[in-house]
Amino acid sequence: MKIKIRETAKEKKGYSLYKLAKELNLPQQTVYSWANGRTQPSYENMDRLCEALECTIADLLECEPIQHKLNLRSIG
Predict the structure, then answer these.
(1) Rounded CA gap, 22 and 30, in Å?
(2) pTM > 0.90: yes or no
(3) Helical H runs in 14-56?
(4) Residue 28 carries which DSSP code?
């Protein structure tokens, strides 16, 4: 599952990843690593991300619609 940190930070607060790292008081490398999918934030850090960006976890997660996963076509 991809975490949309870069997109959500820009959309919700106008933050760059650098600014987000400063807001979270975390190393810039940590936030970039999350945004690039190399690592995943802990539950505690996901909570901190949501607080800083004033968003929900659902806003941060990129889920494929179930139709794509099941390869279904709409019947019309």
Answers:
(1) 11
(2) no
(3) 17-24, 28-35, 43-53
(4) H
